[in-house]
C-alpha cells in the first residue's frame, strides 16, 4: 500500500511540474499581476495567449487600499462634487472613493502626501487622504483673486507656510501659528500676469511662470513690502518659435535632486510638449538670493526618470518600474486610462488598451486633480490645529 501511495504521489508531482503556464489558477494570476507595473505587466501578459485574454490581466482596477504597493507610485487623483477618482498609469479604468471631506472642494496643490484645497465659500484646508487628517486655515477675503497656491513643508511642521499668488501682482502668505493672512504687492515695473500653474519655493525664493510669455518671475516672499520681482526670459534658440503658437498650459517642475524645469504644452497642428531645464548662473548656495542670470536648455530625454504634470503640482523623480522611464505622465484621460507622452516615440500613449496618437485632441483633460502617493507617516497629534502654536512676538 505504501509503495502505491508513493508512486501515486510521484505521478502527481510530475504532472504538476509538466503543467503548462497557461493552466495557472485564476487566483494566482490575479495575485501576481496585482504587483506588476508598466513594462513588467506587459511582459507578463505576453507569456501566452490565455494570459493575454484573461479578464484578470486586462481589466485591472486601481487598488484603493493605502497599504497597496501601488500607492508607493503616484496616482492621479481627481475630485468633483460627487466622488473622488483615482487613476493609475498602469491600470485600466478608475476607482471611486467616498471621502466626504473632499466632496465639492477644489485641489489647489499637493506635496508630501498632503492636499491643499479650497471651497466656494473661500475656506482653505489641508487634507491627508491616507491618514484622513484635516487642518483648517483662515479663509481669504473675496477681494483677493487667487490664481495659484503652494506650501513650503508638511502642515504639521512648525516652519510651514502657505503662499498664494493673486491677480493684480499681489501675493498672500500665512505661517503656521498665524491667525490672519498677510497680503503684499509685488513690485515688477510692468504688469506680469502670473500663470495659473503652481509657483515653486526654491532656496527661500518664489518662482512663478508668466501666463503667456516664456518668462519666470522670482521674488522673496519674506522680503520687504512691496517685494521686488526680477523677471528672467527664456533664452533658447527655440523660444521664439515656440511662442509663435498658443501656449495651452505651462508648468514649473522641481526634481528630486533640486533642479528646476519649465514645461510648455503648445497647441499647433500636433500638440507638442517642450521641456527646458533651468541652468542658474552665479547662484549662491545660500538661501534667499536671486540668480544673476538664467539659461534654459531644451530637454529631449528624461533618461531613467519620469515627470508628472498636473494643475495641483508637478515633480520629476527616478523611474522604479520597468517601462516607466523617459515619459511625461499627464492630467489626461482617455477611455478611463491615464495618458502619457513618450520621448522615445514623440507620441501619446496609455499602458493598457493600445492607445497611441501624435496629438492629444481626443482626450479628457482633468482640471481639479493632482498626482499623489503615500508618504511615510510621521508621529504627531492628529488633533493639532494650524493656530495651536504661538510664534515669537505674538
UniProtKB/TrEMBL annotation:
Top-rank taxon, per record: Eukaryota
All copies of domain KIB1-4 beta-propeller, residue ranges: 101-335
InterPro entries: F-box-like_dom_sf, F-box_dom, KIB1-4_b-propeller
Provenance organism: Carpinus fangiana
Residues in the signal sequence: none
The protein's name: Uncharacterized protein
Span of domain F-box: 21-53
Organism classification: Eukaryota, Viridiplantae, Streptophyta, Embryophyta, Tracheophyta
Amino acid at each position: 500500500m505504501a509503495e502505491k501511495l508513493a508512486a501515486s504521489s510521484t505521478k502527481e508531482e510530475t504532472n504538476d511540474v509538466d503543467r503548462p503556464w497557461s493552466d495557472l489558477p485564476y487566483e494566482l494570476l490575479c495575485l501576481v499581476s496585482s504587483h506588476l507595473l508598466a513594462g513588467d505587466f506587459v511582459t507578463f501578459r505576453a507569456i501566452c495567449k490565455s494570459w493575454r485574454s484573461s479578464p484578470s490581466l486586462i481589466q485591472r482596477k486601481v487598488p484603493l487600499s493605502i497599504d497597496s504597493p501601488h500607492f508607493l507610485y503616484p496616482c492621479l487623483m481627481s475630485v468633483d462634487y460627487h466622488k473622488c477618482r483615482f487613476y493609475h498609469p498602469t491600470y485600466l479604468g478608475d476607482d471611486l472613493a467616498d471621502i466626504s471631506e473632499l466632496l465639492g472642494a477644489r485641489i489647489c496643490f499637493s506635496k508630501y502626501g498632503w492636499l491643499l484645497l479650497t471651497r466656494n465659500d473661500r475656506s482653505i484646508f489641508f487634507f491627508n487622504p491616507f491618514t484622513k487628517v484635516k487642518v483648517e486655515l483662515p479663509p481669504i477675503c473675496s477681494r483677493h483673486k487667487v490664481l495659484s497656491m503652494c506650501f513650503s513643508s508638511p502642515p504639521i511642521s512648525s516652519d510651514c507656510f502657505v503662499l498664494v499668488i493673486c491677480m493684480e501682482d499681489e501675493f498672500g502668505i500665512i505661517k503656521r501659528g498665524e491667525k490672519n493672512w498677510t497680503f503684499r504687492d509685488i513690485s515688477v515695473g510692468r504688469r506680469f500676469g502670473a500663470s495659473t500653474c503652481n509657483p515653486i519655493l526654491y532656496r527661500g525664493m518664489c518662482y512663478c511662470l508668466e501666463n503667456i510669455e516664456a518668462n519666470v518671475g522670482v521674488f522673496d516672499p519674506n522680503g520687504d513690502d512691496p517685494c521686488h520681482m526680477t523677471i528672467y526670459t527664456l533664452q533658447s534658440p527655440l523660444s521664439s518659435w515656440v511662442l509663435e503658437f498658443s501656449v495651452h498650459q505651462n508648468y514649473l517642475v522641481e526634481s528630486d535632486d533640486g533642479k528646476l524645469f519649465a514645461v510648455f504644452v503648445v497647441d499647433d497642428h500636433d500638440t507638442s510638449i517642450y521641456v527646458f531645464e533651468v541652468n542658474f548662473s552665479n547662484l549662491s548656495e545660500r538661501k534667499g538670493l536671486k540668480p544673476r542670470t538664467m539659461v534654459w536648455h531644451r530637454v529631449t530625454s528624461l533618461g531613467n526618470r519620469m515627470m508628472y504634470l498636473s494643475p495641483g503640482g508637478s515633480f520629476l523623480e527616478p523611474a522604479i518600474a520597468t517601462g516607466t522611464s523617459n515619459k511625461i505622465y499627464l492630467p489626461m484621460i482617455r477611455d478611463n486610462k491615464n495618458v502619457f507622452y513618450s520621448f522615445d516615440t514623440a507620441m501619446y500613449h496609455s499602458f493598457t488598451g493600445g492607445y497611441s496618437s501624435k496629438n492629444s485632441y481626443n482626450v479628457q483633460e482633468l482640471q481639479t486633480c493632482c498626482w499623489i502617493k503615500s508618504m511615510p507617516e510621521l508621529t504627531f497629534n492628529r488633533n493639532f490645529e494650524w493656530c495651536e502654536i504661538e510664534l515669537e512676538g505674538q
